[in-house]
Amino acid sequence: MTFEVKEPVLVVGLGGAGIKLASEMKEALGADSLKISQDKKDVSEDNSIHISTKSIINPSVQLIRGCAMEQSENIAKQLSPYETVVIMANLAGKSGAALAPVVSSICKEQNKNVLSFAIMPFKFEKDRIFQSGISLKRLRINSDSTIIIDNDAVLDSNPDLNAERCYDITNNAIKCLATSIKSSELTDDTNILSSSRDTENMEESVKDSIRMLYEDAPPNSIKRSMLYVYGASKIPVGVINSISNILGGIFDENNSEVDMSSSNNTNVVLLSAIAGETRFEKYDPLGMIPEEKTLDWDEPETSFDCDLDLQQIE
Asked: Which end of the chain is more exposed for a tag (fewer CB within 10 A), N or C?
């Protein structure tokens, strides 16, 4: 099955990084946008919802989520006019990890067509890995199609890069893919997005993207791969043919395609549909237990600030 973008489209940015990407994707899709964050600086403009944590300066993920659920009706009202909702969530941040399950759950209740982008943390960000795994699990359940961007895979393949450069590579890959969403086929699966640093050698870029993919999923779990070549008009036809041969030689030729798109810059982005487990299941230790053998809450772990006036019982 393929994911279909039905208009009207709303792009929802969750947290600072998600909001920045949503603003750029909004332009590419010609869609409306909604910004949701607990940081007032992120939501100072129109079409935004501030999740207030009241007097708590450094709120936990669970508290932000609880405060967001208090605004469920307001969020649902903003989502209701749209057929397709694109969620941009940085699960490495508190806001993104807290809000993604709430917003995606409301979308599912309204039977929206949901495409979600989930940006995962570096593995050295140990305090963020567990919460990102919990949030990703919920986001995948509530979405028709999920695209995962793993900053850690970029770093593993390019250990000489700093964190900011890794962010640039993944953000640029998302921007490139945004221009192709309406015209290309996305599967109703979990997809992993991988790219590489800018280089004049396109064949090396493809190999680098495949290496990043293998950081997140074993080769036998890859169902389908689509390679987007941007700036194809500037690339010799022989190079594009060589790229196609590399892709067909590594993956099943019947399940791998090359899509050529016009762009000011030359770049390659690999989007792969995954069946089975990825490295992200290990982020939540309980996620390794089969679903049919797991008791779980309908809602993710949430905390509320409740002022209960209880008399002391002697």
From this structure: C
